Amino acid sequence: MSDGQERTQKATPQRMKELRRKGGLSTSQDMSAWVGLGVAVLMIPGVISRGKAAATDQLAHVRDVALDPASLSVTTVLGDALRSVVPTLAPMFVAVVVAAIVVAAAQGGIHVRKLKLHVEHLNPTSAAKRLLGPQSWWQGAKTLLKTGVVALVLLTVVQGLVPVLTVSGRLPLQQLVDTAAGGTTSLLRFGIVAGVLLAVADLVVVMRRNRKQTRMTLLEVKEEHKKTEGDPQVKGAIRAKQMAMSRNRMMAAVAQADVVLVNPTHVAVALRYEPGSGAPKVVAKGAGALAARIRAEASEHRVPLVEDIPLARALHAACEVGQEIPEYLFTAVARVLAFVMALRRRGASTGQHRVPGGSALPTGAPTDHRAAAREAKRRTRAARAARRAPAVRTTAVPTDLTPTEDRP
């Protein structure tokens, strides 16, 4: 068997969820049974108390019938006796059912699909495999173990009662009843403890079997990942399409730019400034082939091209599309915009121009433009948060508190 076909991978959460929904996981029936029996034992004292009160009332009615048969009929007494059984035993039965449902739900839930008749279960070969499989051997061993444990508990309790039973004929009736009740309680208590321990062992075996049977191959895990997270090829195609749409929008914004700074062929950054809206914004940027497209788009729409290598590199590294330029580049960009306006006044609104005197980048500007970009983003977020914060009304306090003389 190839590596891709070996079931070595742990089942994914989606796989386990699907198996639980379909009821494909094994559960421990012993756990539900023993927990229900334990709940019943815990409620027996209450049942006995309610039964004792009901029996006392019924015996009183029987005595009344015996003394005066005409006052109450035997049918009425028997009907009252039967009706008293329901409130006496109903709480215990309800508690047992609820406990069994809770335990079953904790193990994966109760599934109606298991109660349906499946054709594959009628296959003799499959039935023989189930009868001779390891699960059947475990069920047989578990039955023998439960029988042995219950027999051992019964033998231990009875041996403790043997001295009392040998002299039971000379004991008062109340003492004999108390002894029998104590022995029965001990038998139930130790039996329940032993049964719960066996049920825990069975639950561990069932959980290990479920983990083994639900293992998946590496190919199945990959297919499951594709279903939940999406096919990587499809996601890549969608991402490429989104990037293409974003690039097209960016190219459309180049036509509205005021200037495109170039480097001269490797980098291109398009800027747009709207008076009264703050600092100029980067509407497009790119390197390599994308920079060539930006230059071509700018030339087609008669957007001025200005060659300033340091400033173009600084803007490309420090700004993202749609972001305002950082503060330390205000002066350099303002000189470029003034230069472009002067060119337009002279009628030179197209073509490639150079800034007189070399670079417009100021001396002492940050060399780590990416760090400066992060700082600019942080300041932008802080400014937006400050604008969203509610305004605090203040009262002006005069700073000159020097007393003055009253004028006449």
TrEMBL record:
N-terminal signal peptide: none
Residue ranges, compositional bias (Basic residues): 376-387
Membrane-spanning ranges: 31-48, 85-106, 144-167, 187-206
GO biological process terms on file: protein secretion
Gene3D superfamilies found in the cross-reference section: secretion proteins EscU (3.40.1690.10)
Alphabetical keyword list: Cell projection, Cilium, Flagellum, Membrane, Transmembrane, Transmembrane helix
Region (Disordered): 1-25, 348-408
Keyword Nucleotidyltransferase in record: no
GO annotation, cellular component aspect: plasma membrane
InterPro entries: T3SS_substrate_exporter, T3SS_substrate_exporter_C
Pfam family, one: Bac_export_2
Name of this chain's protein: Flagellar biosynthesis protein FlhB
Lineage: Bacteria, Bacillati, Actinomycetota, Actinomycetes, Micrococcales
